[in-house]
Write a structure and sequence with these properties.
This protein has 137 residues and is α+β, with helices and mostly antiparallel strands. The chain contains 4 helices and 8 strands; from the N terminus they run E-E-E-E-H-E-E-H-E-E-H-H. Helix 2 crosses helix 3. It is globular, with a radius of gyration of 15 Å.
């Protein structure tokens, strides 16, 4: 079955309402909601099933922080807490098409490690005073 996404493009992924003013693919709604619960973090886009440049099936999300240090701190926490043998990747880049230029992060995870990533995101969100420093020391 074909669906229309937020951009009006046809997709095979069923869109669901997040309750946050936008829809996302049904297969990544749990990840999107978990990330948006972290203070200062918001998601920009997501995909239930995409392919990396190595043709590996992945679930993915793009997110930004209200400050560059918060975004980097979340990324460092995820890196510290993800199981060492998990199949996932993270990139941090500057989007120069935004005014002003915006630092954003992309998370990609294999479907079999999706639940582990959700668990890590929820741990970060539940930590009262989370910081990557406490996970690396």
């Amino acid at each position: 079955m074909k669906y229309l996404n937020n951009d009006g493009c046809s997709t095979d992924h069923k869109p669901v309402d997040t309750g946050l003013g936008f829809t996302c693919d049904e297969g990544v709604v749990e990840l999107v909601l978990a990330l948006n619960k972290i203070k200062g973090i918001k998601t920009l886009g997501s995909c239930e099933e995409g392919y990396t440049r190595w043709a590996v099936r992945r679930k993915g999300v793009i997110f930004v922080g209200d400050a560059e240090h918060r975004l980097l701190d979340v990324c460092l926490c995820i890196k510290a807490l993800m199981p060492k043998n998990a199949n996932w990747s993270q990139t941090i880049e500057v989007d120069n098409y935004c005014i002003p230029p915006t630092v954003r992060a992309t998370l990609d995870v294999s479907p079999k490690n999706y639940k582990a990533l959700i668990k890590v995101i929820r741990k970060i969100e539940r930590s009262e005073k989370w910081s990557s420093i406490k996970y690396f020391n």
